[in-house]
Specification:
By secondary structure, the chain is an alpha+beta fold. The chain has 6 helices and 19 strands. The strands form 4 sheets. Strands 10, 11, 12, 14, 15 and 18 form a 6-stranded antiparallel β-sheet that branches. Strands 1-2-8-4-5 form a 5-stranded antiparallel β-sheet. Strands 7-6-3-9 form a 4-stranded mixed β-sheet, with no helix packed on it. A hairpin with an 8-residue loop joins strand 11 and strand 12. Helix 1 packs parallel to helix 3. The radius of gyration is 22 Å and the shape is globular.
Length: about 400
């Protein structure tokens, strides 16, 4: 059976899920099995999309194939590369807040984070008045031109991120890729053992994916004191043109975590919660993330996020959705300067019932149940439009 290697990997993957150290409840296990289903789907897609001579962009993660504390504000795409070939990327710039490109020298593994060989956003490229652009990635050239980017040794993957700040107003663009010397040709007929090989590769991707992102938080989150967040720093293991502040929480149902951070001059600033599976929470039907554009900014220029299980009736409430423990992350993108400690968050635990006395602009921060339902309806419609855009 050519599917046997993948079937064996699925059995081992289930053991990884059931044996995860953070599993403490039926909810944890149920979410783990859901994560496994999405990972199976994504691993098969990635194995069949592994094509470096006739490449195309595939969506790296989405609402049903989550991984790596995926950003609810971002569309992720990737294509595979050879370091000694030249690739042409053409597209049309949408109206999203940020569009960035990153070349990695491999993929994430349980013991390593791939090096970022090149990382830049669309401020570094020439874009025509109608929004179209053409980029080239390839071997070193004497006079490459502004839109040519050299592929360093080990270049293996091109990652593209399209980032929204205002989900309702911004629209995605278009992007495609081809290898310069194979356009107009066709790939050879697959070898007889190609399908068996792809099933084996899919199994390896599945196990590596699960093991990697269970190990990842241990490197960057869980050794931090609980209910705190770091100063802004260049994102480890991620896009090098991005800063982030991270932490993890553990809260009782009558407690709230108040995270106070200045509204940044960066075009993109976003905050999200994540589960112990290192995945975004349900950001479609619940407010588990907020950008600066979606947040209510207080008169003193600061955003006060409130993380709690109980509904405090506030515009900037982040719903825990039953997750007593989880991850916290703030991202800043399209920066024109390095961030300093004073640009980062202050974190305080308070009782939910204390919020009226502890928040300096409590009355301005309140929302009615009808206003909250409208916020959720807006999220649902915006994600649906984004997925079809």
């Amino acid at each position: 059976m050519i599917t046997q290697p993948f079937a064996d990997a699925v059995v081992e993957a289930e053991q990884v899920i059931t044996g995860a150290p953070h599993v403490q409840s039926e909810q944890d296990l149920r979410e783990g099995y859901d994560y496994l289903a999405g990972s199976i789907r994504a691993s098969l897609q990635m194995a069949w999309a592994y094509e470096r001579d006739f490449p195309y962009f595939v969506q790296s993660t989405g609402p049903y194939t989550k991984m790596g504390l995926d950003n609810p504000d971002t569309l992720y795409f990737h294509a595979y590369l050879r370091e000694d070939a030249e690739y042409v990327v053409t597209g049309r710039r949408g109206t999203t807040t940020d569009l960035s490109f990153q070349v990695l020298n491999g993929d994430y593994s349980p013991v390593d984070v791939p090096d970022s060989l090149t990382a830049f956003d669309d401020r570094e490229i020439e874009i025509a008045e109608d929004g179209t652009f053409e980029l080239r990635f390839g071997p070193k050239k004497a006079n490459p031109g502004r839109n040519y980017f050299t592929l360093g040794p080990g270049s293996a993957m091109l990652v593209v991120r399209e980032v929204y700040s205002d989900w309702t107003a911004e629209r995605r663009g278009m992007i495609r890729i081809h290898r310069a010397d194979t356009i107009g040709a066709a790939p050879p007929t697959p070898a007889p053992d190609a399908l068996a090989k792809r099933y084996g590769v899919a199994g390896k991707i599945l196990l590596s994916r699960l093991k990697t992102f269970l190990a990842f938080p241990e490197w960057f989150y869980l050794k931090l004191p609980v209910n705190t967040m770091t100063e802004p720093r260049s994102t480890p293991g991620g896009l090098t043109t991005q800063f982030s502040s991270v932490g993890h929480y553990d809260l009782d149902d009558d407690q709230a975590l108040v995270i106070t951070v200045p509204a940044s001059d960066a075009p993109y600033q976003g905050f999200q919660l994540g589960s112990m599976w290192y995945l975004s929470l349900d950001y479609i039907n619940h407010q588990t993330s907020l950008t600066a554009d979606q947040s209510r900014i207080d008169p003193d220029g600061k955003i006060r996020f409130v993380v709690s299980e109980r509904d405090p009736g506030l515009a900037n409430w982040l719903e825990r959705t039953g997750h007593r423990r989880g991850y916290l992350q703030i991202r800043w993108q399209r920066l024109s300067r390095d961030l300093k400690p004073e640009d980062g968050p202050e974190v305080e635990i308070v009782g939910v019932d204390e919020l009226p006395d502890r928040l300096p602009y409590y009355e301005q921060a309140r929302v009615t149940p009808a206003e909250w339902a409208e916020r959720i309806a807006t999220r649902q419609a915006a994600v649906a439009a984004r997925m079809l855009g």
